[in-house]
Each structure stands twice: as C-alpha cells, then as structure tokens.
Amino acid sequence: MAKRRLTRQQRERIKAIQQRRRNRLEEQADQALSDVMDPQPSREGLVITRHGQNLVITDDAGHYLHCLSRQNIGQVVCGDRVVWQSTGDNQGVVTAIIPRDTALIRPNYSGEARALAANISQLVIVLAPEPAPTPYLVDQYLVAAEQIGVRTLIALNKKDLMDREALSAFNRQFGHYPQIGYPLIEISAKYEHGLDPLIEQLKDQTSILVGQSGVGKSSLVKALLPDIEIQIGRLSEASGQGCHTTSATTLYRLPSGGHLIDSPGVRSFRLGQLSLDALANGFIEFRDYLGHCKFSNCSHQHEPGCALRAAVQSGKITQQRLTNYLHMAEGMTAAHN
Predict the structure, then answer these.
(1) Are strands 91-97 and 64-69 parallel, antiparallel or unpaired?
(2) Residues near 326 by beta carbon (within 8 Å), at least 6 away in sequence
(3) More exposed terminus of the chain, fewer Cβ within 10 Å: N or C?
C-alpha cells in the first residue's frame, strides 16, 4: 500500500506541534539548570539512546544518566559525544555536541536530511542464502559507506544452509570484493565459535548492521549481546521511558570491546541522491581511472577511449561493478530529469 503524502497544511501543522513541544522541553532544560544550587563543572558523555528530548548518556565511569537536551545545540542522536552538566542524582542537561567524525543521514517526512546515528566507524553488510544476495544491493551499501567515510565489512550469515555448489556460486558473485578492499567473512550462529570472525572484526569499532529483511540481523544482535536484556533494563531505568528504549536507535557495549548500534530506522537504509561524480568515486577501484577518459563527459558506456572500460578489459575492474555503476547512474539521471 502506497504511503499517503501529507498536504502542505498538514506538514505545517505537524511542524507547529513539534515546535511547541521543543519550546516546552527547552523551558524544562533551562529550569533544571537554574534550579541547581551548586552548579557542577561540565563533563563529556556518550549518547546511548534518545526518545524525543530525553537522552540516556554514559559518563566516563560508565554510569547511565538521564539528560534533557538544550534546543539551541541542534539535534542530538545516538552515538554523539556531548558536553553535559549535572542537575542532580543521575540527571543532567546536555549543553553542547562535540563535532562528529561521521553521521548516518536519512531524510525525514518532509525530505530534510537528518542524522540517525553519529560517530559510526564501520558498516556491516549482512547477506544470507535467503533472500538471495545481489551484488547490486551490496554496491549500493558500499557507495553509501564511502560517502559517510566509514570502514565496510561484508558478512555472509547462515553459511551452514549453503552446500558446496551454493558457496561456489556465491564466491563467483562476491569473491572479488576482498581484492577491491572490502573484507568478506562467513559466519553462522549454529556452530560453536561460528561468529568468531565477526566478533574479531567488531572489536574497537562502533558498528551498525545493514541488510535485507530476513538475513538474520536481529538474531545476530542477540547473539553478539548476551546481556542485551540487562543493558535494556538499565536504559529503561535511567530514561524513565520504559519500553520506548527497545524501539529507538540504541548503542550497546560489546563484551569483546567496541559498540554496536541497533536501529529500526537503518534496516531499509539505501543510497541517497548523489552527483554522478560522487557516485563514481563511491566505486573505490574506479578512482585511478576517473578523469583519464578521452572525453571529459564520458558516460562510460560507448565512447571511444573510455578508461573505465579499458580497465574492465584488462581485468582491473569487474564488468559486474561497472554494470552496477551504470545502472545506478541511469537511475540518478532519470530522477533529475
């Protein structure tokens, strides 16, 4: 069923309601700070989750605290490093956002770009035998990761469901990615130590899982976080928001080190609108050849002297990757017309 588009009047009404809510929350944050008899020095923290203007952050000691956010600092999101000031026992107000290293951006209902999570260092593309993985979707994720500026890992989940023939077919489609620069691992929660390759890659990273519905992302999150219910309980207690903490973008601490961000909003994450130059640069093995075509406006389809097609012929670029690029470029050109 197609999503019903909001009228301009409805959008304006929603915007007005949201502004009134923000004004009330700003007043609450200001009041909380003014009520502090003995102001505490500002400290740094890490945002674990957000529900409206209610935040749960951790301090340097790993304690969970409930904070409000001042409106004039911008939108605070999961993964943000922030400056906060205590207003009481396990309570505070966030007064500044420390500049982000990276941000995962999605458009909101009105098409405005909004951050969904911040300071991610690794995107994990999860594949499985079913639904059948496609290199085109993987390439979309890879281009998006290059735009964000994060490391990317491809993980084949449920390897135990594949026979030798299926694995050979998978390797024919995806075996070239490690040569390009994208690690490819095979995992299965069915076997003891079957997730070890993934656990090793997650160490010291702030990672987020993406992939088609049905590839097992939720099961992986549970397997990687054996104490997830304990962490959710601590979040609920700190936030006072109860079950809302289970449906919000949330940062979890991994037992082996690093963090994992679980986000309902990223499950359908896709490549946004880019310029053709930005799209081409998202294919990292293209970069040595871009700008070396005979014609500056080369479409890389039929023009003589095309450096990308010459690289395909010499085995430096796979035909599959060039075909996927051309398909994406065609879609973006059509969208702009």
Answers:
(1) parallel
(2) 300, 301
(3) N
Q: Nearest-CA neighbor of 77 among 123, 26, 114?
A: 114
Annotate 108-125 with b (16+ C-beta within 10 A) or e (fewer).
Answer: eeeeeeebbbbbbbbbbb
**Domain-wise residue ranges, the chain:** 8-97, 120-266, 276-336
Distance, in Å, from the CA atom of 185 to the CA atom of 126, rounded to the nearest integer, reads 10
At residue 14, φ and ψ (nearest 5 deg) are -60, -40
pTM for this predicted structure: 0.82
Is the CA virtual torsion 108, 111, 117, 122 positive or negative? positive
- Confidence category of residue 195, pLDDT binned at 50, 70, 90: very high
Cα 285 to Cα 136, 153, 163: the distances in Å are 16, 16, 31
Burial class of residue 275, CB neighbours in 10 A (0-12, 13-18, 19+): exposed
- Of the candidates 210, 202, 227, the one whose C-alpha atom is nearest the C-alpha of residue 128 is 210
Q: Which residues are within 8 A (CB) of 184 and not within 5 positions of it... i.e. 6 or more apart?
A: 154, 155, 156, 174, 175, 177, 178
Is the dihedral angle over the CA atoms 107, 113, 116, 119 positive or is it negative? positive
The DSSP call for residue 214 is T
With tokens 């505070």, the residue in question is: 92
Beta strand pairing status for 54-58 and 91-97? Answer: unpaired
Residue type, 122: Q
Task: Tally Cβ neighbours within 10 Å of residue 181.
Answer: 11
Of 3.40.50.150, 3.40.50.300, 3.40.50.720, 3.20.20.220, the CATH number of 120-266 is 3.40.50.300
Separation CA 223–CA 158 (nearest Å): 13
**Tokens 């911040």, residue located:** 118
- Tell me which CATH code domain 276-336 carries: 1.10.40.50
Tokens coding 14: 């929603």
